Automatic annotation (TrEMBL), chain A:
SUPFAM superfamilies: Nucleic acid-binding proteins. It comes from the Bacteria. Residues 188-218 form the ChsH2 rubredoxin-like zinc ribbon domain. InterPro entries: ChsH2_C, ChsH2_Znr, NA-bd_OB-fold, Thioester_dehydratase-like. Pfam families: OB_ChsH2_C, zf-ChsH2. Residues 64-127, 224-287 form the ChsH2 C-terminal OB-fold domain. This is DNA-binding protein.
Automatic annotation (TrEMBL), chain B:
GO terms for molecular function: acyltransferase activity, transferring groups other than amino-acyl groups. InterPro entries: Thiolase, Thiolase-like, Thiolase_C_2. Keywords: Transferase. It comes from Streptomyces indicus. This is Acetyl-CoA C-acetyltransferase. The keyword Transferase applies. SUPFAM superfamilies: Thiolase-like. Residues 244-374 form the Thiolase C-terminal domain.
Amino acid sequence: MPELLKAPLVVEFPFTRSLGPVQSAFLTGLRERTVLGVRTSDGKVLVPPVEYDPVTADELRDMVEVSATGTVTTWAWNPEPRRGQPLDKPFAWVLVKLDGADTALLHALDAEGPDAVHTGMRVRVRWAEERSGAITDIACFEPYDGEAGTEAAPHDGQFEDRVSGIVAQARLDYTYSPGRAQSAYITAVAERKMVGERCPSCAKVYIPPRGACPTCGVATREAVEVGPRGTVTTFCIVNVKAKNLDIELPYVYAHIALDGADLALHGRIAGIPYDQVRMGLRVEPVWTEGGRYPDHYRPTGEPDADYDTYKELV
Amino acid sequence: MSAGKEPVAVVGIGQTKHVAARKDVSIAGLVREAAQRALADAQLTWADIDAVVIGKAPDFFEGVMMPELYLADALGAVGKPMLRVHTAGSVGGSTALVASNLVASRVHQTVLTLAFEKQSESNAMWGLSLPVPFQQPLLAGAGGFFAPHVRAYMRRTGAPDHIGSLVAYKDRRNALKNPYAHLHEKDITLEKVQSSPMLWDPVRYSETCPSSDGACAMILTDRAGAARSPQPPAWMHGGAMRSEPTMFAGKDFVSPQAGKDCAADVYRQAGIKDPRREIDLAEIYVPFSWYEPMWLENLGFAEEGEGWKLTESGVTEIEGDLPINPSGGVLSTNPIGASGMIRFAEAALQVRGQAGEHQVDGARKAMGHAYGGGSQFFAMWLVGSEPPQS
């Protein structure tokens, strides 16, 4: 049995976010070293603020300013900070109820070790030197033994040059494995063989194989070499440049039923002007040196396949 | 309590004005707007809602994991059941159907259902085209995926090249009558559609859907709720969902079996024998214009191979015999997760007689349709101006 393939898969997007009026005031406030909350219908002060009342569903717009000092309500020690976390040395995740607020804010506490952290300890905001209107404008919290802050005070939420959106860098790190059947397929393709699997129940040959027949729901095991020649069952001519995809436009993206396969796989057609590609065209794979899969498929020169011979595969 | 299912009525409908980018609101603010319009339409308050059922496209699109959790406050869902439905592009339809089942089964009396997408803050194209290791990157986005199936339809039926442009021209003109539609191309002409760039031949730029920010909400209720409704309700006569794998040997991408089965189930529930004659209009999910004739056949409005003839002869125009997408359709408005629910809601608006300038005269029975994934999920309902016959 061939080796089970594995590779890292990083999914990473810079998502934008429109903030709406409440988060816009909150984040702009942080830039100005001002912590804003919102007052609910029953008079509670929520920090961070929300747009809609968690109890009554009323729209909340009554902004208030709270202190930059507060009390830890609970915490967890983080011995091994990861990329993108607030501090690059061990720290405590803390929920901090700021003076004047009725709810707690999640952030990081810079502390020497877990023994230096306790519920009820007093802390204050350590502001980032460079602030842009983001939660990271609070660099972290730090221990504080000075005076307590005051009650929440009304604030109109207005600032010059308000922040209306943020960019949230999201990233997920996976270890991807295509599984047994596709590992075998990919390994064979790299050796220039097209190997699918036959369903023991319906006898259909799947390429690429998925390890199970999607119709019968049974495992497939029997390897079947197909092609390498095949028939273009349908296609489109791509005129849209996709980033990270180094293919000259226009190009033909085709569904190709390899001889002996019961459904088409997808490939690029070249070696023929794009506007002469047609359904029924007979093609064969073309590998480049060291390529893991065929670079493209080119015409074999055979007569076109009759529509009736492949229409069930379209 | 009577036996059988409780009849389900649509008594409130709300949409946002769909646009390319709603930078003035958060996601919470966007869904709130649609929900409040639906409540106002039904003259109900948050307290009248027993449960909330929400849908959107995959989380990768906006990158908010489980946004329904954060949207509970905005939708008055605190202390109530809140469910999220996932079925790719068909999700707006499936979401409404899950909500309808809660009423039909008498689990709840009045349910708010809502779907949304903020495509301006999304990465739909890349969310659909992850760089999966060992796979040869060939395409990005949905257009290139569906274009070969359009070509297969043309080959199978002999449809002439201009049918796709006719659909786009019709839907964009219809959108001019719908104040909530995203695209309002006041100077649209058939020539402009036909001279727009070919993106994924045979699909032209003007034959594709836009990217929109928007939300759509409906309030579904039981007979007692319908009796209190200040506006005429739309009554649900049938609803169904069907799925099939994205790819399997024998899959018919042009006319998927799951779509046929789903429609047949809806017609059976609604007592429809001849959809072409008995249904007054349909809002069907057409993200690429050629899918109008394709779905006309799949849904049984035309014989196989004949769908394009209905389009060509003007039957599907707003003043035609079977108007398709009088709202302007997905081709004019596409907040992906909401697009299916907009189809369902527009069908309901029509049978309530409240579609305004794009109202189809005498609309008594209308179909709402959605599909998603690689033509693998289907969701449909049929609504009428009269209660279903028990």
